[in-house]
Amino acid sequence: MNEPTVSKMKQMKLYGMHNAFKTAIESGRTDHYTLDQFVSMLIDAEWDERHNRRIERSIKNAKFHYKSSIESVNFDDTRNLDRNLVMRLAGCEFVEKNENILITGSTGVGKSYLGTALGYQACIEGFKVSYFNTSKLFAKLKMAKADGSYLRELAKIQRQDVIILDDFGLQALDSANRITLLEIIEDRHNNGSIIVTSQIPVQGWYDIIGEKTIADAILDRLIHQSHRLELQGESMRKKRGVNRE
């Protein structure tokens, strides 16, 4: 008797409701609910299913380089990482306020991992996120200028609530990349958040950007209303290698 109903739920893509209804019937638990409880259970199951699918879709669209989570961040005292600050940032109020996060530290201390973990958390909270390796992004946008798709690519970036610029400053910017960065920063000023990770301390970013006037314009917008995390300690990669031995 219930087979047509189960089939219609699946055809209507009510997958959460379909699975919950089917499970309740197969387990013989339908008598455990009043009518309003049963309807509520089905609605909750569908809501959870759609919510989880939306998170999965957001994470897939973000194109993170690897998996990361706030729960697995190492808050060892030697890392100079304020747990209370990180947990506040994980609440993603910084996105609502269009604030930036600047994460610096030497190679291997976990800058990219922390930035990615905050990006995952923003996806969970329902924000649109895109991860970029900074050098690869600049190369891609140079090609976009050549084939006429540059403005379209910038528009895609602008639509994101959060962008992650990973490994910023590995090489000094040329004039084209300098202007590209300025355009990205200007588009996002008071209209989105940026998470930047870099081996170079923030005070050294002027030299990386070059051209004082443009550097001033970029850093004024980037640093204003930003949260700065300066990681310290031994390389996490090196420590993991030692632990495996």
The topology string of helices and strands comes to HHHHHEHEHHEHEHHEH
Principal-axes geometry comes out as elongated
The parts where pLDDT drops under 50 for at least 5 residues are 241-245
What spatial order of strands do you see in the largest sheet? Answer: 2-3-4-1-5
Per DSSP, what share of the residues sits in E-state strands of 2 or more residues?
A: 5-15%
Helical percent range?
A: 55-70%
- Main beta-sheet strand count, sense and barrel state: 5 strands, parallel
Distance between the termini: 61 Å
Mean pLDDT: 90
Provide the gyration radius in Å.
Answer: 23 Å
Total count of helical runs of at least 4 residues: 12
- Judged by helices, strands and strand pairing, the structural class is alpha/beta
Question: Count the strands?
Answer: 5
Quaternary structure annotation? single chain
Produce the secondary structure layout.
Layout: H1 3-11, H2 15-27, H3 35-62, H4 83-90, H5 93-96, E1 100-104, H6 111-124, E2 129-133, H7 134-147, H8 150-158, E3 162-168, H9 175-188, E4 193-198, H10 205-209, H11 212-223, E5 226-230, H12 236-244
Parallel strand pairs: 1-4, 1-5, 2-3, 3-4
For the structure shown, list the relevant keywords.
245 residues; alpha/beta; 5-stranded parallel beta sheet; 12 helices; 5 strands; 57% helix; 11% strand
